[in-house]
């Protein structure tokens, strides 16, 4: 129960970052980087009486109905939660903190800030096995009927929305949107890689009792012990292997310098 609450807390932080990026930067600058939010910005420009949040809600409902009818109920509860919670947060921010004009004149600087907020938020959501749906659902439908890969399907969907935005807002903002899509994907991958980085410490010693006690009792972690023989001396050795994100240095006269390895 506590683990689930922690997971949804992280998801909500990620959703808040994405919603802030949409409300404070994307909407006032009319920057479209694909997705349901981008489509909602375009429709709102054509039909200003409809709020961005209401359009996102309508689009998500249509997409989920299509996904349920065509794909089946294979999307998870977290995807449904993220889609509608993001819609709610965007609507709430528009009510509480409406922004009618860009925060600054430099569109590129705002795009960089937006990509940082969005990619960080999406990385947090993906790390908890969540998804905001949207073009992911379109990608699943394209994959089923045309055999297009999910990654390519998302990219095709986003590019189609960006091309639509070019016809409405002009080529300049469309190019900014395309740049945002490319940067967003790269930064999300980088953040997920950093968040998933672990270190492996391997300690070779002739007597591991003190080191094992330090790891188990002081650090409160587990370890795996192997028995090995030196290739040159043929002396018997014990090898302790421990994988974790951070470990204090082991101070022992029996231990050799630990080697670290960062798996991809």
Structural account:
There is one protein chain. The chain is of the alpha+beta class and 264 residues long. It folds into 2 domains: 2-195, no CATH class; 199-261. The protein is 63% helix and 9% strand. The protein is built from 9 helices and 4 strands, in the order ααααααααβαβββ. It has helices at 2-29, 35-46, 52-70, 77-96, 107-127, 135-146, 150-169, 171-195, 209-218; strands at residues 199-205, 224-229, 236-244, 259-261. It has a 4-stranded antiparallel β-sheet with strand order 2-3-1-4, with no helix packed on it. A hairpin with a 6-residue loop joins strand 2 and strand 3. Helix 1 (2-29) crosses helix 4 (77-96) and helix 2 (35-46) packs across helix 3 (52-70).
